Amino acid sequence: MDNLLSKEFQIASYQLDPRKQARLTALASLFQEMAYQHASLLGFGYNDLKKNRTMWVLSRLRIKIHRYPVWDEVVKVETWHRGMEKLFGIRDFRIRDQAGDAIAVASSAWLIVDMASRRPVRADDQILQRSRREESVFGDPLNKIELSYENKELGSHAVLYSDLDVVGHVNNVKYIEWCIDHAQPAGSVDAEIAEFEINFMNEALPGDRVAIYKNVQPGNLSYFTARKNNDDREIFRARLRWKYIQGILYPMSARNNP
């Protein structure tokens, strides 16, 4: 049983932003696909859990970018399962360039939930612990994002068919996209996201309209939260840290390893 999955991908034109670099959402989609493939190889993937009418749901995600891969660049994406922390299955990721340098890392926390009730179900620890790999890309847990200040409403988003994933709710990458669309200064290409962290609180479903709120804090930080308009339930909360690529603020080396 291989507790590390590694695959190469070539950055395609449809994954690019205006700087001809891979978008953050493109990288998040690669992480999602690698998680699905590796969990399936280890015997606890989507089809395995579906037999018991359960499924994996992403609860927390943290991404740190040292350098965005560019158009046509071939990168190697690695993922491994770190075992269980209470009800959470922890999975880490790393992207390496052709020189072997780590250019991005991520960590994620997943829940197994009942398909009907959407309530968490305790995992089969024997299967999950047997395939674990202890290495951690951040070295600290994925804690809940705290919001201790008032947020300004930016607008709302109606959940559309194109937002939905295989289990019928808004795909986690779409939430990231919503944040970026509201965060990126209009017409600006001199700033990019260095770190992104998100907590998924509740599902958004077809017919929902979601209000999105933002608060800007010192240190190039932008905080987001979203709530359903009909019952005010919180859908997600997120934190972004910017870097300015022309050296105006917080210059970061493209070769810094985690």
SS-based structural class?
alpha+beta
CATH class placement of the largest domain: Alpha Beta
What is CATH's topology name of the largest domain? Thiol Ester Dehydrase, Chain A
Q: What is the succession of H and E elements?
A: EHHEEEEHEHEEEE
Oligomer: single chain
Per CATH, the superfamily of the largest domain is: Hotdog Thioesterase
**H/I helix tally:** 4
Radius of gyration: 18 Å
- Number of DSSP-assigned strands: 10
Range of helix content: 10-25%
Average pLDDT score:
89
Report the portion of residues in β strands. 35-45%
Overall, the morphology is globular
What does this structure look like?
This protein has 258 residues and is of the alpha+beta class. It folds into two domains: 1-140, Roll (Thiol Ester Dehydrase, Chain A), CATH 3.10.129.10; 144-246, Thiol Ester Dehydrase, Chain A (Roll), CATH 3.10.129.10. It has four helices and ten strands; from the N terminus they run βααββββαβαββββ. It has a ten-stranded antiparallel sheet with strand order 1-3-4-5-2-7-10-9-8-6. Helix 1 (24-42) packs antiparallel against helix 4 (172-183). The chain is globular. Residues 247-258 have low confidence and may be disordered.
Blueprint of the fold:
Blueprint: E1 5-10, H1 24-42, H2 46-50, E2 54-65, E3 74-85, E4 88-96, E5 102-114, H3 125-130, E6 152-158, H4 172-183, E7 191-200, E8 209-217, E9 221-228, E10 234-244
Antiparallel strand pairs: 1-3, 2-5, 2-7, 3-4, 4-5, 6-8, 7-10, 8-9, 9-10
Helix pairs in contact: 1-4
